[in-house]
Amino acid sequence: MNINKTSLLFIFLAIGGLNFSLAAQDDSPKEEAMKPQMSEFWTPKASVVTPGNSSSNASMSPPSDAIVLFDGKNLKQWTNQKGEPAKWDLKKGSMIVNKKHGDIQSKQEFGDFQLHIEWCVPANIRGEGQSRGNSGIFLQNRYEIQILDSYNNQTYVNGQAASIYKQAAPLANAMRKPGEWNVYDIIYAAPTFTKDGKYRTPPTVTILHNGVLVQNNTSILGTTQYIGFPQINPHGKAPIRLQSHGDPSEPIAFRNVWIREL
Ligand code: MG
Question: Which residues sit with Cβ closer than 5 angstroms to ligand 1, an ion?
């Protein structure tokens, strides 16, 4: 268990205790409303690791049994969140976030999988913190792996690239600089649930960022929440969703997206 999750657990327990005492005596102070900053952790910093060179941004072709979700030609495998055709922009074999049209998600739903996805922060990126190349990959439509320009860009560690957003910081910062392609290889195990709607086994995720281990079979605590704590709601197979974040910075690009069901 890393320090971030230890901290989260402590806060869960503290709030549980507060609720108990509130029930016991009405004149106790009221529980403070949650604010975004309450689930942000700034230390310890992930060490910076320079990834190996990917021979001038070459992209690896999918293995033979992969389901290709994006090969640079069209967005046929994707819809918006209403099930309508995805309207991100196609350019030079990549798909570019179109912030007018919102998130997109895979038509197909997945349980356990291995996902390969490449993404690029544009060389002319501006902004700072969470407003610099923000996007994300929602595993099973609810657990966000953060995408952000984390090259010389400070933010809370459980919100930088390759974090499980607002939950677990990456083990290293393996970010390539803007204009270069980043690769995530994500191995994900879906949760199982008890009859009363709790996790029997939580979702877990292992992530390589540019070949560097950044999440090592990390347990996901629940759904991604910007404000407040993760929630647990039973679900089955669900899509991969890519985030169109409302930050004002230049939109990021994706390419070579494939998945293997496990
Ligand atoms: Mg994001």
Answer: 134, 136, 243
